[in-house]
């Protein structure tokens, strides 16, 4: 396996206890995740979970009329498929790749068996689940109470926390679907941030030029999500 991409690029896998790691390491399959790939639809049975390493996955709630809005993002800090060990075999959300990259796939039954063992791995997965639920709650509040450009700042900063680069390649339509707004709203918000010198924007491409500026402009939702994630999940730099 290439040294450039390892399972332990995912933070949950990186902090597993040695015994837990050795039981599942040979069961992890590296998979490519192209932009826009749907990992599962609402109501699908979950046959696998995914531990992103360089990809970012959006969890979307989809309405009956086809409209959708992002409820959370999952990157190298977590896993896609928490419903599996929370007692359900399916979930009400859609999971779609919002930033192309790689992930490590694990058979559903293997993760369920590991969770049922109890011990450090179960506690780690439960703490991650609490962090993810906190992100979902804050995203719902943000979408209701804050401006589109503030939401875009939050979305960009959460993405930057999960990527080694300050660039994002996203179609305008996909960003609009993530935020649950019209494309014109995305364009207006992005141009406002560009005029402020915070980003460089063109169709399908965003480069962050001034991260501190984004952090100064974003609503409190980003800080709440990051603070809760930092509180609940291990700090890799401290290991």
TrEMBL record:
Residues 12-112 form the Cyclic nucleotide-binding domain. Gene3D superfamilies: Jelly Rolls. PROSITE patterns: CNMP_BINDING_3. Pfam families: cNMP_binding, HTH_Crp_2. One of its GO terms (cellular component) is cytosol. Keywords: DNA-binding, Transcription, Transcription regulation. SUPFAM superfamilies: cAMP-binding domain-like (SSF51206), Winged helix' DNA-binding domain (SSF46785). GO terms for molecular function: DNA binding; DNA-binding transcription factor activity. This is Crp/Fnr family transcriptional regulator. The lineage of its organism: Bacteria, Pseudomonadati, Pseudomonadota, Betaproteobacteria, Burkholderiales.
């Amino acid at each position: 396996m290439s040294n450039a991409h390892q399972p332990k690029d995912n933070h949950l896998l990186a902090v597993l206890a040695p015994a837990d790691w050795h039981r599942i390491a040979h069961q992890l399959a590296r998979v490519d995740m192209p932009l826009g790939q749907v990992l599962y639809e609402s109501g699908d049975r979950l046959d696998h979970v995914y531990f992103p390493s360089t990809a970012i996955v959006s969890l979307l709630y989809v309405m009956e009329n086809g409209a959708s809005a992002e409820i959370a993002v999952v990157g190298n800090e977590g896993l896609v498929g928490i419903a599996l060990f929370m007692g359900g075999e399916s979930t009400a959300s859609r999971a779609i790749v919002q930033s192309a990259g790689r992930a490590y796939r694990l058979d559903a039954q293997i993760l369920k068996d590991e969770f049922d063992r109890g011990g450090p791995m179960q506690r780690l997965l439960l703490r991650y689940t609490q962090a993810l639920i906190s992100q979902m709650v804050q995203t719902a509040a943000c979408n209701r109470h804050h401006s589109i450009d503030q939401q875009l700042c939050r979305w960009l900063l959460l993405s930057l926390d999960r990527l080694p680069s300050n660039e994002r390649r996203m179609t305008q339509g996909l960003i609009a679907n993530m935020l649950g707004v019209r494309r014109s709203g995305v364009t207006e918000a992005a141009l406002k941030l560009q005029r402020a010198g915070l980003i460089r924007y063109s169709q399908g491409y965003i480069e962050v030029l001034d991260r501190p500026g984004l952090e100064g402009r974003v609503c409190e939702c980003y800080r709440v999500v990051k603070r809760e994630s930092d509180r609940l999940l291990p700090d890799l730099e401290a290991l």
